[in-house]
Amino acid sequence: MVNPLLDAFRREVNVNLACGALVDFDLPVTSDHGGHPVVVALEEERVSALLGRIRAVGGFANLFVRGSKQVRMVSVIGDSCAIATPDDVMTGDDVPGPTATVGMFIDYVERNPNGVAISAAVGHPSCARDSRVVEFA
Fold first, then answer.
1. Torsion region of 131: left, alpha or beta (phi above 0 gives left; psi -120 to 50 gives alpha)
2. Running along the chain, 137 residues long, what does each successive block of 10 average in pLDDT?
């Protein structure tokens, strides 16, 4: 089922990257093929849906998350690109529960400056890190 709010947010991100407030912003995550994969999510969505989207674009992404008051961006990068060891590992027994939301996950990433390893969820060694607020036009 298509979520109209998610589709609207996806369009808003695309417009801001193409000709809006983020036109001069260098996306930090680059794919193996030189592209800049972008994934969008809403805070109230299940984190399992988000991890599926990240997996679908190759496991690395520039993640934009819409909350009620702000948009946050997170880098999902390969472990080999992470200079510091992640502060926590969300694999095995430590994976988020079935009711965990994207907002909860992003809040957790914010509390761990060196990031959170999410390798098992996206199929290869990955780390979510560098959460920050971004402003749209």
1. beta
2. 93 96 93 91 95 90 96 87 65 70 93 82 81 91
pLDDT tens column, 120-134: 667 777 889 999 999
| Helix intervals (H) in the chain | 4-19, 47-56, 102-110, 119-122
Smallest Cα–Cα separation from 50: which of 112, 104, 114?
104
Going through 15-87 in order, the beta strands assigned E by DSSP cover 38-42, 61-66, 71-78
pLDDT digit string (tens) for 62-80?
999 999 999 999 999 876 6
| 71-78/88-89 β-pairing | unpaired
Strand partners, 89: 117
Q: Is 11 helix (H, G, I), strand (E, B) or coil?
A: helix
Instruction: Determine how many CB atoms are found less than 10 A away from the CB of residue 1.
Output: 2
55 alpha carbon, distance to own chain's centre: 11
d(CA 60, CA 125): 10
3-class secondary structure, 74: strand
Length of the chain: 137
As beta bridge partners, residue 74 has 63
